[in-house]
Each structure stands twice: as C-alpha cells, then as structure tokens.
C-alpha cells in the first residue's frame, strides 16, 4: 500500500468516526431514542434501581466522563462479573502494549529510521540496474522503513530488536500474572457476596440404566451425602414440551397483535393460506383465540407426557449446603467406569441448554471429534478466499488478472479509495460470516451451558483468526510476486516468504484503524440498532410487548468480541518488535474499546447469564498463544536477517510454555470448580429447596404456561 492510500484510509476513517460521534451526541439527547441508547438504565429504573438523570446526555463529552469514573463494583453490579472480566482483557492489552511501546517506539523505530537497507538495495548497481532480488522494493512505503526490514543483514543493530523481544515477553508475563491474581480475588469476592441456586446444586450425567429412577438416584446420593443431600430434579426428554410452548407463545403474540387492531368500527381479518395471501378470510381475533386454545391443550399434553416419562440419563442434584454441592461437582462416583455418574458444578439456571444435558458420554466424544474436524476444514478452506483477497490487496496486483482495472487507476480519487479500503472491507465481510457457524458447531458438541458454548466458539474463532487472517494475510500479501520468484529460484522459498512479513504491516495498520474508527464509531452511535428499532416500531410492532422486544438490550457478544480483540492483540504482539509503528494504532484501538465497553456496561448491556469470570482462563491462554506466535515469528525473521545470534531467542518460547504451565497449575483450578473456601462464606439468604427446584425448572414446564 502506498503512502497516499495509507493516509487516505486513516483520514477517511477518522472523518467517519467524527461523523458517527456527532450523530451519537445528537441522537442520544432525544427521549424517544432512550430505549436504544440507554436500555440498561431503563430496565434498572423499572426495577427501582436506576437514576433517570443518568439517561440524559447534557454535554457532548458526558458519556466519556461517566465511563471513565464508573467503578469496578458498579460494572459488576450493572453488567455482571463477566463484563468486568472482558474489560480486564482490554485493560491488560493496553498495559502490555504501553509497556512494549516504552522501548519499541523510541529505540527500535529510531534505529530503523537511521538505517538505509531499503534505499541501498533500491539503488542501481554498477551495471545500471537494481539487484534481482529486490523487484518488489517499490511496494515498500515510508512506514516500512521504520521497521526491522530496513536493518541490513548481519547488522549489530539487530541486537536491539532481540532486546525488544525479551522486553515484550516480560511485559506480557508481568501483566498476565498480576491480572490473574487480581481477577481471582474479584471472583472470590463476587462468589462470596450472596447465595444463588447454582451454589446449592450439581449436575450428574450418564446415570446407569439400572438407576434411572428418582428414588434410586436419591438413595444413591443420600447414602454418600446423608446430611446435605435434599433431592434430585430428573432431566428427561423435554423437546416436545419445548416445541409446544414455543408454538403457544407465538400464538399468544399473534392474538395480542390482532386484539390491538380492534376498533369500534373495525376488526382485523386475514387469510389463512400461504403467507397470508391465499385461502379464506377469517376474523383474526376469533381465529387466534381458537388456535391458542388448541395450542394450550397440546402444551398441557406435552407437559403431562414429560412429567410421566421415566427419568433420563441426567439430573440436577439439590443440596442444603453449598460446600457439599461444590464437592459433589468435583468428585468421581463410579468405581467401575469413568463414563458413569459423571458430575460437574451446575451451570446457572438461565444458561442451561436442556437439550444437551441428556446426551451420553460417547456421543459427546463423537460429536466433539466431528465438530473439530469441521472446524479444521473451515479453517483450511477459508484460507482460499482470504488468500485470494489478500493477493489482490493492491490495484497493481489486481491489474495482472483483470486488465481493465488499469482504467480505474487513471481516476485518481477512485483508485486511492479502492486501494485504501478494498482488502480490509473484503476481510471484514468474510469474518462476519463465521461466528454464527462456530456457535452452532459448539452447541452441537453437547455443551450444557450457554457461557461454555460462547467460550468454545470464541476459542475456535481465535485460532481461525490466527491461521487464516494473520498468517494468511502475512504470507499471501505478496502471493503473485512470491510464486513467480519461487518458480525461478526454488531454493529461496523461506527467505521470500519471510520478506513478506514487514510489508504486511501497512495492511494491518489500516485494518486496525478501520476497526477502531469505523467499527467503534458505529458501536458508539448505535446507528444500526436505532434504524432497526425505528423500522420495527413503525411497521411491525403492534403491542407494548412488541415494542419492548424491539429494544430489549443484549449482553456483550463474547463469542465475537473477544476473538476480534484477540486478533488485534495478536497482530500487535507479532509486529511490536518487527514493525513497531503498529503499536500506536493498537493502543488507540484498545483505548477506544476500553472506554466504550465501560460506557456500554453502564448504560447499554444487560447480562443474559453469569459464568463468574470463567472466560478469563480462556483469555489468558489465548494471550499466551498470541505471544508464542509472536516469538516464533520473530525467531524466523531474525534468521531471515542472517543474525548469527538468532538462537538467543530460543529460550523465549520455552519460557512462555513454562509460564503457561505455572499459571495453569496455580490459578486455573479455582476457576474450573467453585472453591470450597468461597462456599463456606455463604451464610445469609440461603434459598429454600423449593426455590432451587423452581429455578431449575424450564419456563415451559411452569404452571403459569398451562
């Protein structure tokens, strides 16, 4: 990417962000837009916990001040511990990159700028032509000359970059260690702050066929826990009741909409055929009343059948003591097979995936193997379109395949804009198609909680990003030129692919800028949710319930946001030493992410579930994986620079693996299972057994739905 296209990309992105920020200031002031800009505040007001003044934007920068001043305890109270953990990820990224920038920007950038390897290679040789190995140097911009690529081979200045590699690694170790310790204390504080149904319950799966009876399950666990065990809640096949409940709720909503259209002079009618366009016309109110009666009868029958069905392979175990419940979730109960009486801590009731609870252990292993295979194939085949996109990251490369592009290059403004945005926009579109598929695949593994599904999908998305986006773009950014040179000089494959690393930095800088200027500009302005809300309210909403559903707030989409942020952090870690000018843009990205996430936690998001920080070990592991990729990339690039002392970097990946092992041994067990120390602190507001049973009864089995 040339300098003009790079500057055009940054300036255009900045102007878009300023425009979207202005839109937010103007639109958030209007009371009729409050449901879009302050949904969490409105819900807290309904519950008597909110302050109406919070929802009034009096000055343009009020949201910044409020987001800056909100405390961690308020974030936990408003948006949950999971939201606070997500913000800790952004804070950790800011601290790591800030520490890295203290050395890399003033030292490494200065050293690279004072070198002249690119200029020396581009100078004609004594025969009047450039060297054969440097025909792509014309693609190097001024930004590339501030990177390690501008350091001559075997030069002693490379020692400073080696020091930078150790500096970066130390920053990651220090920040992650302190964060893990801080988050562990925060998790302990939240877990000990009050009693919740899941603290008094455990999940047992793979119950032997000979014990699939409520009395036998009770007898088995009461013999082992005579003083603390209360009862079990068998989990059978609830699919029929779930389907009839959804049909009944849908019919109720249609009846409410029909009744909302009744006036003194008119009653709504509709046709009963395909799409409401064919068939006889009927009175909508009378029609849906009859349909609701039929749906209610079917649901009653389904509930009766579910209640009469024998207990299945799983059950929720209820205890009167949280320590006993926590111990039960960590114990091995079968002396003959690990596939029998498999217990685990019970997930929070609202995030239970009841359809997966009854899946037997062997099916879970088979499903997991199939899903991992599908994910591997997805990563493999997505490399094809992403490689294709990155190969056309400049118009001059596109011109080699499509000759008429030469005419576009003659239009200066159009060619500059396309050069700046074409590859980044294409990449973002590809990435937007993936999360839904990964969530579906993770759910198909047989995971029983929504938070675990999102963590699993986030992990798959992260590795997809690393292999396809980061490595794919880096390696294939000079695909056409590289392939031709490999054909001429087969022995130069490694050096030619390694030489593609520094030029890809300009692509990633514009990619990061596009993400934080345009992406966070849209996120702050909430322009898309506002448009959707207005369309639904005007054309689709007939009742108060419809309107409320149109603006109902959601939680942080961890399955997409965490991998997206981890991609930026991976890019920053990998280029922090090789091309340090990535750091300022990554710092701005995480600064935007941090302040906007705090703003959303205060006013926008409402947690759909609470996993009590179980996402952090996942985040910690992925940051270590990103650092490991960075260290391996530096080791390879130092070798390409023919640095004799490249083996000095070999201890870094080893140290990273040891650090991962140590932190996993020290901290992870306290996240995997509820610590007994914490369960002993819960003494007040102990829930009754009946309230726990009610909490773990699916809503479609409640009496109110009869």
UniProtKB/TrEMBL annotation:
<dbReference type="InterPro" id="IPR032880">
    <property type="entry name" value="CSC1/OSCA1-like_N"/>
</dbReference>
<feature type="transmembrane region" description="Helical">
    <location>
        <begin position="647"/>
        <end position="668"/>
    </location>
</feature>
<feature type="transmembrane region" description="Helical">
    <location>
        <begin position="567"/>
        <end position="597"/>
    </location>
</feature>
<dbReference type="Pfam" id="PF14703">
    <property type="entry name" value="PHM7_cyt"/>
</dbReference>
<feature type="transmembrane region" description="Helical">
    <location>
        <begin position="158"/>
        <end position="178"/>
    </location>
</feature>
<dbReference type="Pfam" id="PF02714">
    <property type="entry name" value="RSN1_7TM"/>
</dbReference>
<keyword id="KW-0813">Transport</keyword>
<feature type="transmembrane region" description="Helical">
    <location>
        <begin position="369"/>
        <end position="392"/>
    </location>
</feature>
<protein>
    <recommendedName>
        <fullName>ERD4-related membrane protein</fullName>
    </recommendedName>
</protein>
<feature type="transmembrane region" description="Helical">
    <location>
        <begin position="96"/>
        <end position="115"/>
    </location>
</feature>
<keyword id="KW-0472">Membrane</keyword>
<dbReference type="InterPro" id="IPR027815">
    <property type="entry name" value="CSC1/OSCA1-like_cyt"/>
</dbReference>
<dbReference type="Pfam" id="PF13967">
    <property type="entry name" value="RSN1_TM"/>
</dbReference>
<keyword id="KW-0812">Transmembrane</keyword>
<comment type="similarity">
    <text>Belongs to the CSC1 (TC 1.A.17) family.</text>
</comment>
<feature type="domain" description="CSC1/OSCA1-like N-terminal transmembrane">
    <location>
        <begin position="5"/>
        <end position="178"/>
    </location>
</feature>
<feature type="domain" description="CSC1/OSCA1-like cytosolic">
    <location>
        <begin position="199"/>
        <end position="356"/>
    </location>
</feature>
<dbReference type="InterPro" id="IPR003864">
    <property type="entry name" value="CSC1/OSCA1-like_7TM"/>
</dbReference>
<feature type="transmembrane region" description="Helical">
    <location>
        <begin position="619"/>
        <end position="640"/>
    </location>
</feature>
<dbReference type="GO" id="GO:0005227">
    <property type="term" value="F:calcium-activated cation channel activity"/>
</dbReference>
<feature type="transmembrane region" description="Helical">
    <location>
        <begin position="421"/>
        <end position="441"/>
    </location>
</feature>
<dbReference type="GO" id="GO:0005886">
    <property type="term" value="C:plasma membrane"/>
</dbReference>
<feature type="transmembrane region" description="Helical">
    <location>
        <begin position="462"/>
        <end position="480"/>
    </location>
</feature>
<feature type="transmembrane region" description="Helical">
    <location>
        <begin position="500"/>
        <end position="518"/>
    </location>
</feature>
<dbReference type="InterPro" id="IPR045122">
    <property type="entry name" value="Csc1-like"/>
</dbReference>
<keyword id="KW-1133">Transmembrane helix</keyword>
<feature type="transmembrane region" description="Helical">
    <location>
        <begin position="6"/>
        <end position="27"/>
    </location>
</feature>
<feature type="domain" description="CSC1/OSCA1-like 7TM region">
    <location>
        <begin position="367"/>
        <end position="638"/>
    </location>
</feature>
